[in-house]
Specification:
Human Immunodeficiency Virus Type 1 Capsid Protein, Retrov_capsid_N, 242 residues, mainly alpha, 65% helix, 3 domains, Non-ribosomal Peptide Synthetase Peptidyl Carrier Protein, Chain A
Length: 242
């Protein structure tokens, strides 16, 4: 692997194109981890990278947390650190930095955030699943793909689905044998059978016409009965007079 120093344009792009560490620690952690491989930075480079990211408008609030979690002991004599990117010390420092960021990226459990992920009225089931899984990764210590979390993820998916999909999924028999992908396939069946807005308007128009026809027929029958009654009475009176 070859050493590549960070350019000013690289640093700028990384600064403006990544969300704050508090919002998405995985994103910045993944970026920095990949840069450790691709650029083989010295410790000076690492310091420059961290300083750029945490001093950006989107990262200012992260400074205390980053300072506690990433890099060597602040009390250590930095003059003794080798800045040669290929030295053993530099390699150790790079991966100590990555380990620190991994630790800082661990969030406290906040399952309320997971419960806030609700399927939108027109959101495809697969897209909803992606958002739900990301919420589990971001706001809980659980791996949503593990077998131990299968039932919890399925229940959350069903309970937070759109109403028509939820009603269908709640009627599934043998749900304990389903994987989350099986559940998504069932949800997609409902999703793809939904009416388009044009189909819905046409159906409602047809139903209104049918209702009007039924009402007209009822009125005609009622009028016929009234006329028959009037005629019968008239005939009776005529007979009485003769």
């Amino acid at each position: 692997l070859q050493y590549w120093p960070f350019s000013s344009s690289d640093l700028y792009n990384w600064k403006v194109n990544h969300p704050p560490f508090s919002e998405n620690p995985t994103g910045l952690k993944g970026l920095i981890e990949s840069l450790m491989y691709s650029h083989q930075p010295t410790w000076d480079d690492c310091q420059q990278l961290l300083q750029t990211l945490k001093n950006s408008p989107r990262g200012t609030e992260e400074r205390p947390r980053w300072d506690r979690s990433a890099g060597p002991d602040p009390g250590r004599d930095r003059r003794r650190i080798s800045f040669d990117s290929s030295s053993g010390t530099a390699v150790q420092l790079r991966w100590a930095l990555v380990a620190g960021l991994r630790g800082a990226a661990r969030r406290p459990t906040n399952l309320a955030k997971v419960r806030e992920v609700i399927q939108g009225p027109t959101e495809p089931p697969s897209v909803f699943l992606e958002r739900l899984m990301e919420a589990y990764r971001r706001y809980s210590p659980f791996d949503p793909t593990s077998e131990g979390q299968r039932a919890s993820v399925i229940m959350a998916y069903i309970g937070q689905s759109a109403p028509d999909i939820r009603r269908k999924l709640q009627r599934i028999e043998g749900l304990q044998d389903y994987t989350i992908r099986d559940v998504v396939r069932e949800a997609e069946k409902v999703y793809h059978k939904r009416e388009t807005e044009e189909e819905k308007l046409e159906r409602e128009k047809k139903e209104r016409r049918e209702d009007e026809d039924k009402r007209d027929r009822r009125q005609e029958r009622a009028l016929t009965r009234i006329l028959a009654t009037v005629v019968d009475r008239g005939v009776g009176l005529y007979r009485q007079g003769t």
